[in-house]
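Honest question from a wet-lab person: if I give you the sequences of every part of a complex, can you actually get the arrangement of the whole thing, not just the pieces? Trying it with mine:
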Amino acid sequence: MATLEEFKTEATAEIEAAKPLYKQVNNERFEFTDDDYAQAVTDLANSKWQEQEFGYIQARQEAYGSIAEQLDMQYWDSVNGTTTWADHIAQVKSDNPKP
Amino acid sequence: MSGALIKIDEEIVTSSVASVDLGGANWDSSYDVYVVKLNNVQAVTDETSLMLRVLKSSSADSTANYDRAEKVLKAYGAFGDNYYTNGTELIMESTGNASTDTVNSNLYLFNFNNSSEYSFLTYLHSTYTWFDETRGISGGAVHTVASASNGVQFFINSGNISAGTFTLYGLKK
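Yes, you can. This is the full assembly:
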């Protein structure tokens, strides 16, 4: 797992490669100032770190399915003696591990 | 006429830019409420996100003072919730680079001219996402710094904005 410092190094290289970057103000394009570039590096590094640390939460929410779908799984598990719901939840957690 | 929208600033992106400022030197502080319209905003890079910061004295404020809560209304599945406090920006919506991957939004800005209150935003997005699904997002956000703001800045978390029209209106009293 990468540290925030490692992401900053990665982000610095990516922003350097992407230069020049522009901002649009009053319908004119201006190249980023040094401060703007520094902020862009910080933002990109933070974004990468957030994705690493917390991306699994969003991914799990998407993959779990709706409460209605899960209740339906649980109903049919109770009728049929299966473990579809528990298997589904375990698979989602396994596919989207906590860092 | 009371209730009319008076255009204050408009930025039309036709060449890629990393950020777009609305307001700033063009800010007109004579309104209580402002409306921002985003039309067909697209990114250069797929699987990215459109972000927002408020402008303080025409500079984007990147301090960790952004709170937000929103409901994601998905045409493709269960609705979701997004929330956080003390972010360094507001995440607006996912962006993509296909011609159909666009964000269209209305935002309301409150208290921006009040130097002793936080700056408040509400927003509604309608999006065709980079993963080819339709969704709407309804949310509210607060920049928890008690000072006046004079605009907003939009940017992409990784890469450039390739297209879009960004318009700022004052809501006439």
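Two things worth pointing out. The radius of gyration of chain B is 15 Å. Residues 100 and 128 of chain B are 7 Å apart (CA to CA).
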